[in-house]
């Protein structure tokens, strides 16, 4: 069914955590790209598109399928932007190019229909999780990444699996609020970047939060933090247009 009223909107998604070419999440993404995203000005993927990414040289069905579908959308005029998450921070310019898109630095400020919007994955805001913040610092070092990418693929997969298991084991002992954003960190970033609106994912706590500010930003005492949802149970999409924004969710296909 053709979607008609799709002009002048931009879509934001994150945290799909795709780990197989045949998962309902993959089908859900393909449906989104073939339907709702048709005619969109831009699609921003704010990290953790994939459950794991050990290098652009790791050619696999899931990566191929996503790249082909995104590339097709890009050829129809939708700009594609990819940001790193904590799972797929090794995703490179090569893969972004295969998607017909480009990598977005974190954080980035974009102009969305006249509004300045700060984009980030969100893990950097979870500063109470000090063990994670230290790990993040290490794996974001160019030297660490070069050394990792130089290892054989099989080894890289093994290390990635170990890290995932370790992270799951550690997270099961952490209080859930530790893994949410630190409010002060959000305020600091909005002030530093001089914006009143931020969009991020990562925490798997979708919602739209109005924040009362103590110090005005752009003469306003309010800011908004939009949190995208994780796709583990359903698809989450933020639709942004000149008229406003709407955080929507859809069931995954069941077949
Ligand atoms: Mn994440």
* CATH-assigned homologous superfamily: Metallo-dependent phosphatases
Which structural category do the helix and sheet elements fall into?
A: alpha/beta
Give the SSE string: EHEHEHEEEHHHHEEEEE
Widest sheet, order of strands: 4-3-2-1-10-11
The proportion of residues forming helix, as a percent range, comes to: 25-40%
Total strands: the figure is 11
The shape is globular
- Tell me, rounded to a whole number, the average pLDDT: 94
Your description of this structure?
With about 260 residues, this protein is of the alpha/beta class. The protein has one domain (about 10-250): 4-Layer Sandwich (Purple Acid Phosphatase, chain A, domain 2). It has seven helices and eleven strands. A six-stranded mixed sheet has the order 4-3-2-1-10-11. It has a five-stranded mixed sheet with strand order 5-6-7-9-8, with helices on one face. Helix 1 (about 25-35) packs parallel to helix 2. The longest helix is centred in the middle third of the chain and has 19 residues, at about 155-170. Bound molecules: manganese (II) ion. Manganese (II) ion (MN) binds near residues 15, 47, 85, 123 and 202.
């Amino acid at each position: 069914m053709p979607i008609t009223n799709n002009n002048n909107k931009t879509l934001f998604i994150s945290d799909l955590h795709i780990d197989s070419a045949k998962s309902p999440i993959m089908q859900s993404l393909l449906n989104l790209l073939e339907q709702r995203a048709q005619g969109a000005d831009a699609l921003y993927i704010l990290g953790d598109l994939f459950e794991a990414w050990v290098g652009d040289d790791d050619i696999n069905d899931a990566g191929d399928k996503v790249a082909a579908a995104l590339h097709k959308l890009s050829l129809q005029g939708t700009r594609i932007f990819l940001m790193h998450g904590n799972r797929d921070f090794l995703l490179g310019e090569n893969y972004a190019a295969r998607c017909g898109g480009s990598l977005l630095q974190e954080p980035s400020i974009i102009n969305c229909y006249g509004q300045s919007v700060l984009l980030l994955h969100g893990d950097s805001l979870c500063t109470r999780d000090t063990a994670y913040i230290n790990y993040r610092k290490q794996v974001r070092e160019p030297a660490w990444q070069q050394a990792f990418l130089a290892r054989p693929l099989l080894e890289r997969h093994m290390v990635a699996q170990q890290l995932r298991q370790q992270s799951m084991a550690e997270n099961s002992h952490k209080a859930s609020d530790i893994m949410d954003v630190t409010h002060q960190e959000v305020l600091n970033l909005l002030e530093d970047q001089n914006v009143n609106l931020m969009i991020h994912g990562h925490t798997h706590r979708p919602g739209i939060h109005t924040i009362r500010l103590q110090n005005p930003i752009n003469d306003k005492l309010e800011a908004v933090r939009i949190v995208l949802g994780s796709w583990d149970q359903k698809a989450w999409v933020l639709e942004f247009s000149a008229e406003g924004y709407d955080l929507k969710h859809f069931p995954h296909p069941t077949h």
